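Bench notes, afternoon.
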Amino acid sequence: MTNVATSPAKDVPSSALALFVIITFSITWGLAGGLILFPDRAEAMLGEITGTHPAFFLATWGPAIAGFVLVLFYGGVSGVRLFLSRLGLWRCSPWWVVFVLFGVPFVFILGSLIKGGPLLAPVPPEGIGTLFALLVLMLFLGPIEEFGWRGVAQPLLQRDVAPIWAGMIIETIWGIWHLPAFYLSGTVQSGWSFTPFFIGNVVLAVLVTPLFNNSRGSLLWPMLLHWQLNNPFWPDAQPYDTWILAAVLLVVLWLNRDKMFTRHGAVTAVIPNASSHSS
């Protein structure tokens, strides 16, 4: 019998993309659907469902769970270790470092000032400690999704299509995947309009693509970018933050046009250093 812990890891095949989508939606929509359709029964069993409830976390982790299931199935334990090594890929263009660490906050601050808002989000009555607690909490929500979106889906798609199309396909899946949050009370999205959110997702999913490829398939930088976008310290800048990021995207697309519209330099390995993937 083959030992999955010591046998050479094999990469996730391209055909597994459909399975990734099925598992992701089954977890998130299955759980969220139960909360939406049977709210009284869900509250009686689980308590009040809010954005900090474990059930909400589990629904949010759908893409990550799907990603790890596929990596473990095809690559074994050694494949999971190699997959997680992508968290250590920290080298990328200094321009991307500046954008993630300083550019994103500037976008929110500028957008807020345009609409006559504050430089930073107002401190809640409970004190600034609440914002720091929420900042830590955000690290375990949106960024964890990237184990699925950028960890598995992006490399699989880039085996067959140019990065810009891979980003747009992920955006479409990503946007539709979020739909239950707009009907689930206690979530941030329940007070939003879906169309502007979807447009914003288009911008973000394409914008993160050159960062992903520039960092050689890093999971660290997409996660940090996702965290910054959810940072509770940044003020409400809608809809101007979306338009500013769209302008940034146009510049990024022009500067990376040779790599965004061709597959040259696109990262295609889910499990680095694994044996060749199959279709």
